Amino acid sequence: xxxxxxxxxxAKARAGAGSRKLTRTVxxxxxxxxxxxNDLIVSKTDLxxxxxxxxxxxxxxxxxxxxxxxxxxxxxxxxxEMPRAVFKLLWETIKAGDEIFAYVNNLAADGANYWVxxxxxxxxxxxGTIIGYHSNRRAPERRVLPxxxxxxxxxxxxxxxxxxxxxGLNASSGLLGDLLRxxxxxxxxxxxxx
Amino acid sequence: MTSSSSLSEAAILSGLAVxxxxxxxxxxxxxxxxxxxxxxxxxxxxxxxxxSVRRLRxxxxxxxxxxxxAANGDLEARITGIRETDALGGLMHSxxxxxxxxxxxxxxxxxxxxxVRDGRFFRRIMRRGLxxxxxxAADVINEATQAMxxxxxxFARTTDRFETELGEAMSExxxxxxxxxxxxxxxxxxTGDCSDKAGRIxxxxxxxxxxxxxxxxxxxxxxxxxxxxxxxxxxAKEITDRAVEQSHTSRTAxxxxxxxxxxISEIVELIRExxxxxxxxxxxxxxxxxxxGEAGKGFAVVASEVKGLATQSARATDRxxxxxxxxxxxxxxxxxxxxxxxxxxxxxxRISDTIAHxxxxxxxxxxxxxxxxxAARTGTDNVSTDITIIAGSVGEAGAASHNLRDAATRLQSxxxxxxxxxxxxxxxxxxx
Lengths: 194, 432
Ligand SMILES: Cc1cc2nc3c(=O)[nH]c(=O)nc-3n(C[C@H](O)[C@H](O)[C@H](O)COP(=O)(O)O)c2cc1C
Known about the structure:
The complex is a heterodimer of chains A (194) and B (432). Chain A is globular and about 40 Å long. Chain A has one domain: PAS domain (Beta-Lactamase), CATH 3.30.450.20. In chain A, a hairpin with a 5-residue loop joins β4 and β5. The longest helix of chain A has 19 residues, at 165-183. In chain A, α5 packs across α7 (165-183) and α6 (145-160) runs antiparallel to α7. Chain A is α+β, with helices and mostly antiparallel strands and 194 residues long. Chain A has eight helices and five strands. Chain B is built from five helices and no strands. Chain B is rod-shaped and about 280 Å long. The structure holds flavin mononucleotide.
């Protein structure tokens, strides 16, 4: 059955379009799926964030087929409760050529959510330019999650308080910045200190 | 026939081909027709097998290409679109899994090292998802990072301490060098003054030496003249002594003369009494002659002549008396003059004694002075010598103070050079 789905380039492109629709339609069930202690969820994207590779663990946990995944934007597993400020920081960081760690709540195709500790890094070509991005996700430190959830909820609430998306994102990013200033650490050190 | 893999397809087909070949052989004794059917089936199977093997080869070539890319360090290489669910599919997933692990390890090791390279040490390799040798390698790298972090912290602490302590030490050195420079300047001025003064002292000592020599010469002359005076004073004493003696002698002589004058006065008195007697006798003779008249006339003449003689002798005695009184008064005066002279001489003798004594004392004093002068001369000679030595030392001290000044200046510049060095070292150390 999988062989059929992945057959042909045009089919893959259509699968991408279909998966965007899927993202919108998946309703969180409230059930949480917990990553295995030694699982490594891997995906690679092109420069725009379209998935070019997802390992079998990714597909298993997200309840997606390779055909549904490859060619789809990474927001295919976006959870509606994730604050946009986190992704903004993620993209700013990786576009600058740096790595970023982030606690991310993802949404599987079956409506279950799963928390990951994502490590997103640029992939460099032989000439040193960024040719795509890569993400390894590991089981998050459970102990840290309550704090993360509370923080994300605050950021999300801030984003909802503003008339325009841009203003909301700005305010939420400001809030994240305030938090880091309060802790007296840059983001990367802060996330590692947790 | 739908197959999940060209591998299982080929396996089934080759099995089928073996069966069909067996069937073909088995159908040989049954005549042409069964053999032909079996052979046709075998042919179709072999053709399908060939197609399947070609497809399998294509998949294997693709897998080999991915492995080759990975072997060449392209960690982006993955096998996608895995349709196979059999062993070949398993192999493909295994290769992806292996690449994911190597990729994860490489990214972790690289990112951790990059953070360390940028002088930060919070980052560790995520051990989750890494097993066996990867996990052990991660542990070693993490330990190395920790060790570096510790070293760095220690280094930073040491650098801090180094900075404060060395900073203090350096400013002290600089202050000391400045002080030293000032001291050297003061010393230089002082030695300059000293040198001037030593020069003047030397000059004064020479002058003094000359003066002392002059004084010594004068004192020697003085001693000589004092001794001369002494000699003369003693000869003067002899003379006065003799004069005193002579004055005594003349006094005795005058006393004898006085006595003789007194004796003469007595004789003259006697003569005058005799003259008075004679006069009286002449008078009596005249009276008698007168009474004797004419016979007496010649006698009267003699009596008158005797009377005249007596008168004359009386007058002569008077004159003698007068003259003796004059002599006596003259000798008295002479005696008193002689006494005065004797007294004066005595006084002179006493004065001479005093002078002699004084001269003696003066002589002793002059000798003392002479000795002192000799000592003074030795003293001034010594002063001269010493001052020459001192002047030499002062000159050396002056040169030394100049050297000191130079050294202080060099020290100052070395210190500030060292300070800049330390500053740039610390700046460099801080960027580590
Ligand atoms: C390599 C890589 C991995 C990513 N992984 C995730 C992920 O697991 N979950 C997620 O929601 N977004 C992920 N993103 C971010 C998405 O591209 C996207 O920015 C995010 O889902 C927000 O979507 P939105 O901009 O449509 O709100 C990833 C991006 C890259 C480059």
